[in-house]
């Protein structure tokens, strides 16, 4: 049985495609569905079903557009209550795709409608499990998301359901089944996912902390909830979009791909209050950017950081991109529900610069520059990495304010002193610098290459780099 994993690294997301005898199925598709349609056409197949493992929080699924464009039937697991037509499957129900079968296994816990799909090949042999966010490689789905939509679904209740689902529905299955999860490392839907994106169930039984045979329910709940960070603010909004429905991506692209001259761009920005989002890389942004714009680079984990840093998915957005990257940026915004792009700067920042309009810059310093100033001036150094990164190793005296928490801790950044920011490699610290600039901070510098470069300086590690064990 051939199962094609379609992995999107910037979201750490995996969709799946299977085909048999001219019939195909897609599991947990992204918002832009044409690649799935093209894949089925290559097989001269029709996409019979689009299976959803649950109402996703970290992206807007493409099930509605697949139904519209390919005539596919949408399938959810037991208990799902979408606001549109769909098949609500029963536990144990079997669907046929050519000579293949897909068996529904209801596995509540991540959410109450969470469902795993057992794949059965043409010889009636069980092949693998599409696990959604129920079981990852090295982890299981976090149980604290549904309470942001339904308040009485506490994380403790859901964790208990997940324990039962794993013990009663997943662990009894054959060890040679291949596990096909919805996410890999980098997703906020778990806390310690592996970089590997498939594994055998037997190996997961041996290595996944959450599948230990001797673990009690109480131990499971405690371990699962320990160390969970707050989910990104856009998650509940994406869940509601997946439940209630959403506008077609084609309509969004038609509305958003509106090129604006520098003069028109400035007028729209002033009249609408739209957020100006610059998607260029950190180096180019630092050399010159439109005042009050923020930087989230398209080449990084763009959609995830947009979701972290822009609280409202309904926020109107004006784009500054490299020429030719406009549609990609609009699409990637829509993957996480930001559907209100109102236009983009024609010609990118170069056209703004050529029009002789005002712009700002961000100072960038090397790790050697930081070393010299650190020894003599002791500047205020802010580390915007995650707390776990900071706790593992950091510069002595650096103040840790994780990027996703910066809006809640602006008071920690004095405006009357020079500030130096760093992250691991320079992507996140430029986002932080742009936000502070937008909020009125002036004297800000960013460390080129971030902590990875800082570690390569000649300063003795005993003086400069501080593992947690030495604190």
From TrEMBL:
Entry-linked SMART domains: Lactamase_B, RHOD
Recorded superkingdom: Bacteria
MF (Gene Ontology): hydrolase activity; metal ion binding; sulfur dioxygenase activity
Keyword Hydrolase: yes
Matching Pfam families: Lactamase_B, Rhodanese
Residues of the Rhodanese domain: 270-361, 375-463
Gene3D superfamilies: Rhodanese-like domain, Ribonuclease Z/Hydroxyacylglutathione hydrolase-like
Gene Ontology biological process: glutathione metabolic process; hydrogen sulfide metabolic process
UniProt entry keywords in alphabetical sequence: Hydrolase, Metal-binding
UniProt-recorded name of the protein: Glyoxylase-like metal-dependent hydrolase (Beta-lactamase superfamily II)
Organism: Aquimarina intermedia
């Amino acid at each position: 049985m051939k199962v094609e994993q379609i992995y999107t690294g910037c979201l750490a997301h995996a969709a799946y495609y299977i085909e048999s005898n001219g019939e195909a199925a897609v599991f947990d598709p992204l918002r832009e569905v044409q690649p799935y349609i093209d894949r089925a056409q290559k097989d001269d197949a029709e996409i019979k079903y689009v299976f959803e493992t649950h109402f996703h929080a970290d992206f807007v699924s493409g099930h509605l557009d697949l139904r519209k464009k390919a005539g596919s039937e949408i399938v959810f697991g037991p208990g799902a209550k979408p606001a549109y037509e769909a098949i609500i499957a029963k536990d144990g129900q079997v669907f046929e795709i050519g000579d293949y079968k897909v068996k529904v296994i209801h596995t509540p816990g991540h959410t109450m409608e969470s469902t795993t799909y057992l794949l059965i090949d043409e010889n009636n042999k069980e092949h693998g499990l599409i696990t959604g966010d129920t079981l990852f490689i090295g982890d299981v789905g976090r149980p604290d998301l549904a309470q942001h939509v339904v308040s009485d679904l506490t994380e403790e209740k859901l964790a208990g359901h997940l324990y039962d689902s794993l013990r009663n529905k997943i662990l009894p299955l054959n060890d040679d089944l291949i596990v096909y999860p919805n996410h890999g490392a980098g997703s906020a839907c778990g806390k310690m996912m592996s970089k590997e994106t498939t594994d055998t169930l037997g190996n997961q039984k041996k290595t996944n902390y959450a599948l230990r045979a001797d673990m009690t329910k109480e131990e499971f709940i405690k371990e699962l909830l320990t160390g969970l960070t707050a989910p990104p603010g856009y998650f509940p909004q994406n869940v509601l979009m997946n439940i209630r429905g959403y506008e077609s991506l084609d309509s969004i692209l038609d509305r958003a791909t509106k090129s604006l001259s520098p003069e028109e761009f400035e007028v729209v920005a002033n009249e609408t209050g739209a957020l100006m989002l610059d998607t260029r890389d950190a180096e180019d942004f630092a050399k010159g950017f439109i005042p009050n714009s923020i930087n989230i680079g398209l080449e990084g984990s763009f959609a995830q950081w947009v979701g972290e840093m822009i609280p409202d998915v309904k926020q109107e957005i004006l784009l500054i991109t490299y020429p030719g990257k406009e549609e990609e940026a609009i699409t990637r915004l829509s993957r996480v529900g930001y559907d209100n792009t109102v236009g983009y700067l024609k010609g990118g920042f170069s056209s703004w610069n050529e029009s002789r309009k005002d712009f700002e810059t961000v100072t960038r310093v090397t790790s050697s520059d930081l070393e010299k100033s650190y020894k003599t001036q002791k500047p205020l150094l802010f580390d915007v990495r995650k707390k776990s990164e900071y706790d593992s190793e950091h510069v002595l005296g650096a103040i840790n304010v994780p990027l996703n928490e910066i809006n809640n801790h602006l008071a920690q950044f004095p405006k009357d002193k020079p500030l130096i920011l760093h992250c691991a490699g320079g992507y996140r610290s430029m986002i932080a610098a742009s936000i502070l600039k937008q909020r009125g901070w002036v004297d800000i510098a960013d460390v080129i290459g971030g902590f990875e470069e800082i570690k390569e300086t000649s300063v003795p590690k005993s003086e400069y780099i501080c593992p947690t064990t030495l604190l």
